Structures are given as structure tokens and as C-alpha cells.
Amino acid sequence: MPFRLGIDYRPRGDQAGAIEQLTRGVFDGEKHQVLLGVTGSGETFTMAKIIEASERPALILAHNKTLAAQLYHEFKTFFPSNAIEYFVSYYD
Q1: Which CA distances in Å does 13 have to 26, 38, 41, 43, 85?
Q2: Topology at the third CATH level for domain 1-92
């Protein structure tokens, strides 16, 4: 099943360039890429657009359980027709 965003947001600011550059990196076989942004700058939306453009499954890691839960709920909203899974390790 293709990845299609279930929202009608548009990239703003630097997002369009980041989406294009990181998507190109996916298709070029880059093993590691990093998306940096201050809180509230739209990193989650940018990741969703890259997933949609590349049409590939993704593994999103978060450094704490609170952020992992937030990301899970946002991605469920972004991709309502796709399976979004959530795993938290209880080994601290």
C-alpha cells in the first residue's frame, strides 16, 4: 500500500529544501542522514513527506518514551491508511 498523507499541510520555510535533499539521499542510497530542527519547526511533518515521497517504510527512533508516544500519534494522523507501530523498551 502506498504511503499517502491524510493531511493537507504544505511545506514552509526550509522544509521543502530539506524534503527534496533527504528524499534524494534515500534514492541515492545514503546510509545515514540527519534532520535537525528546533522544537516546533516541523521535523515530524518533514519526515512524513520524505516517507511519502520515497514510498518506503521507515524506522523512527526517539530518545524518550514521551516523544515516542507523541510521534506515534502524529504519524497515525499523517498516515491513517498505513500501519503505524509503536514499541517502547522498558529497559532503562
Answers
A1: 22, 13, 9, 12, 30
A2: Rossmann fold (3.40.50)
pLDDT tens digits, 28-38: 999 999 999 99
Q: What is the pLDDT of residues 38-76, one digit of tens each?
A: 999 999 999 999 999 999 999 999 989 999 999 999 999
What's the rounded Cα separation, in Å, for the pair 39 and 81?
A: 27
pTM of the predicted model as reported, rounded to 2 decimal places: 0.88
Query: Could you tell me the residue ranges of all domains in the chain?
Result: 1-92
Looking at the chain, the number of H-run helices and the number of E-run strands are 3, 0
